[in-house]
Amino acid sequence: MSIRRFAFAALAGALFTTQALAADTLLNVSYDPTRELYQEFNSAFAQHWKAQGKGDVTIQQSHGGSGKQARSVIDGLRADVVTLALAGDIDELHRLGKLIPADWQSRLPDASTPYTSTIVFLVRKGNPKGLKDWGDLVKPGVEVITPNPKTSGGARWNFLAAWAWAKKQYGSDEKAQEYVTQLYKQVPVLDTGARGSTITFVNNRIGDVLLAWENEAFLALKEEGGDALEIVVPSLSILAEPPVAVVDRNVERKGTRELATAYLNHLYSEEGQRIAAKNFYRPRNAKVAAEFAEQFPQLELVTIDGAFNGWKEAQPKFFSDGGVFDQIYQAH
Amino acid sequence: MSSLSVAAPLPTVARQAPKQWGRLTLIGAAWSVFAFFLLLPLVIVLTEALQAGVGTFFSAIFEPDALAALRLTLLAVAISVPLNVLFGVAAAWCVSKYEFRGKSILVTLIDLPFSVSPVIAGLVYVLLFGAQGLFGEWLLEHDIQIIFAVPGIVLATLFVTVPFVARELIPLMQEQGTQEEEAARLLGASGWQMFWHVTVPNIRWGLIYGVVLCTARAMGEFGAVSVVSGHIRGLTNTLPLHVEILYNEYNHVAAFSVASLLLALALVILLLKQWSESRINRLRHSGAEE
Hints:
The complex is a heterodimer of chains A (about 325) and B (about 290).
Chain A (H helix, E strand, L loop, with lengths): L2 H14 L7 E8 L3 H17 L5 E8 L1 H9 L6 E3 L3 H9 L13 H4 L2 E10 L19 E2 L7 H18 L2 H13 L8 H9 L6 E5 H11 L4 E4 L3 E5 L3 E3 L1 H7 L2 H12 L1 H9 L3 E2 L2 H6 L8 E3 L1 H5 L2 H9 L4 H8 L1
Chain B lengths: L1 H6 L1 H7 L4 H31 L3 H8 L2 H34 L5 H8 L1 H4 L2 H12 L6 H6 L8 H12 L1 H14 L2 H8 L4 H30 L2 H7 L9 H10 L3 H38 L1
Helix pairs in contact in B: 3-16, 4-16, 5-10, 5-11, 5-13, 5-15, 8-10, 8-14, 10-13, 10-14, 11-13, 12-13, 13-16, 15-16
């Protein structure tokens, strides 16, 4: 047996042996902008779990547009927990996949939403187009970057924030629809996820304003340095509530319910809340919220339940096939 | 032969000297298009990858998730290429040595993966093996996972690479005909001996060329694999998917480092392709001279 063949066998062995599955594993299927948040939270949780004498845990992550991720879980991606951009996407796990019970959202505090965010504007440094509020976005010549509401959860929050402002400003649903129609006429690229839109705006320098998750806007500012971009806070926006849920059918099959539940509960702990706040998500815990109060601008926030009667009504009305979004985007 | 081909064009060029500028512009245009669309992007990939130094470059490549992606990519190649060789040889054999009904349909169908968008290839497997799919319930009951796991990635890779070996072998084997095989049988060779001692040596270089193309596509496939991957870090990400993830995480240096690893693999494959191509040509010419 030649040395060459031996070396080849050793190399192949090193490449193809899978790691021993000694540790418990947990798969968190999440949406686009939470990458940095869960990178930090996962290692904190693994330490916490080990400190409790429960042994090692490996947490696997998957990220993508929220709607697409929900679709994957319905199609069989074996998520133990989902941490998606909006309740409407997790509802689909019940409606289409029967993976979770209908009342999933009442199983954890704060409607299963451990952290919140909102929608703000990200503009080029110095705000050359003078964009201060939603009304300025439909001025002639302004290019708006936002992802596709069909696939992206953030994009749906963007859409509803714009709608809520226009409805308050102009007083009726018809006027709001006119405003939003004009807004989407000024969108040159619809990416499938929030991160794609951020890359389009920040790296490819397309567009004058990015409608973004507050956390995504802060992160872009941090990554790109403050000398190219700045955040504009509109007069009114929406309280974006990205919820979390244990996927019952999967954890029962894998025997990971205890681990998955502890993982989500840890998001509500002071440590979890602090990690969320550090990654620019608004914490629910009052004490942690006070610590980070200066970081988050104050603005009027409508809620999905207050302004739109919840996702169960908003989702079919605005985003299903033939809904308001299809009507205005077809017209375009 | 080769000396002739160099000598032959000379008088023509001399006669048409005034038109030489046309030739030069065309060659110049070809080179500048090549430089702009191919060379420049390659240079950019490498400079981006190395902009933070060699240390960062190697730490990005040897990072566990990147290694896991490399491992998965090589695994997909290691499974799909041999299967494609089997299928390709069998299909080319059928088409070139036998006459049967529906032969032209078979040849057309082999090309299907060339014309179908990879996204559709991926979705087909989701519809078949996904939890909501045709075999979904059965697979779930037996705890077999295909989609969003390694088998799905291998299947998607197989689908998009199916034509490569067969496409390469069919014209080669048709050109060679069945005479040599018939002679072997008449001289008393068994079917297996005939295949091994007559057919394989004849198609060797075409086979290698097909394998090289197939490997290149299997390593680089993005669309179909992306649909069935589930994008679990360190588990179901192939190298191309890993590059996209790193890029989306503002991690440009790492993204381009891993991209240049893919590029290096591609260059090795390109050299192999060049080598096997020249061997095929030599073989064809020597065959023609006989």
